[in-house]
Amino acid sequence: MESTGEKVQKIVKPKRKLQCFREEYSKAFPGVIIRSRKGENYANCTLCRQDFSVGHGGISDVNDHVGTKKHKSNANDSNSSGKISTFFVAPTDSLDVINAEVLFTEAIIEHGVPIAMADHMGPLFRRMFPDSKIAKKYGCGRTKTSNIIQCLGEESSQSIVDVIKSSPFSMSTDGSTDYDDVKLYPICVRYFDNQTGKVLSVLLSLRECNTASTGENIFKIIEKEMNSNNIPWDNLVCFAADNAAVMLGSKKGVASFITEKSPSAYIAGCSCHLIHLAVQRGAKQLPVKLDDLLVDVFYYLEKSSKRKQALRQFQEEEGLPKAKILKHVSTRWLSLEHCLDRLLQQWTALIKIFEAEVGHEKKSSMPSSRGRKRPYTPDVKKSEEKKRKLDTAAPQATDEKADSSKTFDLARYMFKEKEMADKSKKVKEKKKEDDTKTSSSKASLILTKMSDKNTLLYAHFLMAVLPIFNETNTFLQKDEPCVHLLHHVLSTQFRKLIMRLMKPKVIIAASDITKVNFKDRANQKDDEDLFIGTNCRDYVAEHAKECDLTTFFSSVRAFYSSTCSYMIRAFPFGDEVLVNARILDISYRQDCKFRQVRFFAERYPHLLTKDDKRSLEEEFLVYQCDPLTPAVTEAERVDTAWNELSKLKDPATGKAKFGALFKVAKSVLVIYHSNADCERIFSHVNKNKTEFRASLSTKVLGSLMTRKMMMTSSGYKCHSVTHSKDQLKKSKRCTMENK
């Protein structure tokens, strides 16, 4: 081919113009399709997290991508889970959700339900209230609930500290039973709350003691609590505890260390414990141990449903109410009277059931001629013959070099096994026989005691005298202040008791009833006048010949004498604080003396200013003579009455009419009259920390108990508590802070 010499020009196609991303794509798929950083010819899918080209097809490319399996799958996953923004509340949003979470936490605290229950409440609320926005956002499980509990507890503790830093308060503590390897010591305080106008008994904190529970170590727990919160020791007007030496000992007890820090602090023992101990001292003088009988009867019936069914049957036959036999616990203050009353109520039915038990056991233990088992006698000849046969049948060793001492003797082994089996059988039969005898002897012993007329005689006597102690004990377990009545109540109780033993002319002639020689037989009443109760007196008249009345009346005198001796030795009859505390009784105001008021003003001088001390006596005179408003005189509680009294104004100056006098009254109102507050704390602790909730930490338990006692003392309910915005914000932050 010849070349023409002409150049061939290359055909170049024109470059196609690509489409750019348009905002219409985002409007068509809001939140899904957005502009890509890769270039203007690309779009980004937020669900698939990838860029794709829109340069060729534009909206068609977008539709093609949206129609892919990958995108559809991601879209379904996105619809099933909420947006992350729904899990966070903007600062401008309301606090409705956290308020709901805090309210339910308050309900858990008040009613003692398990904290783990919170894990199910969020899903449950969403099922119960599907249209509620709060329910959709509710997310308070056990961890967050525990943190909110700690936050609420710390807030309650801080509110207590803020008050007692500047006002008088009393403190009480007691050691718990051991939890794991530590002992718990609740630090309880009593103070006057100006908001409620009442004295509150609350828990400041719950502390652990990992060392020996000596007086010094317990005091260090209290000292650390006081110093960490900067609470002045001068504000401590009273320290109360049970009467154990480790608490109230004058040398090594907690009270001795408290007195060094606060010399003016009043050391108060527990009157409820003292009353209980006085009854125990008296009951030891009675020859019939009714407390042991109560325990024996309870445990004999408790472990057998068959015996309980029999008791029900006898109750129906005797026309008695179907009631259980109560368990007597010697450490419970009011246990003996209630349990003994129930025993007397069911006495005839119990007699019948124990008669049936003893009769049945005697019948079952009698040997019958037909079913009598022959005693086991080993047949020596038969055993030797059997052994000889086994020896013959035993294979001999083939190896002559084998040591004969190491050869296994099958015959001897089998004979030994037979001997051991027979011995084991005999032991089991012997144990069964012993158990039957023990049960039989227990039932017989109880029946013997209950059939004895003297047992019922002493039971009627105790039922006549126990109400004297239990009425006082119940009164002193009140939560409201009773210190102004404590001396009067204890003195009245002693007077009621000694009147049952002493002749009236001896009591009337005595200037101080505690100085009467009540052990002198000449000062005591005759047997026919000695107080034993109406039911007991009727029982004596009916069964005089069957009872040992000489021993009975001698034991009754020993009961009264032993009880009175302990009360005189241990009870605070001559205590100046209790005698002068009567000034709180408004009905007694016209008979009280100013020296009683001055006693507390001098004991706690730091609570009054110079102006208060100058105006104190004048206010006292006005208090004695001026008529008081019905709000004061008709108040049900003494602290409420004094709160109303503090609101009265002097019309001339407009100032408080009894400002200085009210300061003195507050220092007396907060003094403990018993240690029942600590006992109530431990009752709540045992209900909240059980073997099924052993993982509950002391920190969470302490916060829970502090908040609970604050709600109980203030009279708040979980559904009526109102939380401020600051409280809700603290509760909202507490989850992250406590991680």
Q: Secondary-structure blueprint of this entry?
A:
Blueprint (H helix, E strand, L loop, with lengths): L22 H6 L4 E3 L6 E4 L4 E4 L5 H8 L2 H12 L15 H16 L6 H11 L4 H5 L4 H23 L4 E4 L10 E11 L4 E12 L5 H14 L7 E5 L4 H4 L5 H8 L4 E3 L2 H13 L6 H13 L2 H14 L16 H11 L1 H19 L14 H14 L16 H42 L1 H23 L7 H17 L4 H6 L24 H9 L6 H22 L5 H5 L13 H10 L6 H16 L4 H4 L4 H9 L12 H11 L6 H13 L9 H17 L10 H13 L2
Helix pairs in contact: 7-30, 7-31, 8-10, 11-18, 11-22, 12-17, 13-15, 14-18, 15-17, 16-17, 18-19, 18-21, 27-28
Structure overview:
This protein is α/β, with parallel strands linked by helices and 739 residues long. Among the domains are: 59 residues, no CATH class; 167 residues, Nucleotidyltransferase, domain 5, CATH 3.30.420; 85 residues, no CATH class; 114 residues, no CATH class; 85 residues, no CATH class. 55% of the residues lie in helices and 6% in strands. The strands form 2 sheets. A 5-stranded mixed beta sheet has the order 6-5-4-7-8, sandwiched between helices. A hairpin with a 6-residue loop joins strand 1 and strand 2. Helix 7 packs across helix 30 and helix 13 crosses helix 15. The longest helix has 42 residues. The N terminus is likely disordered.
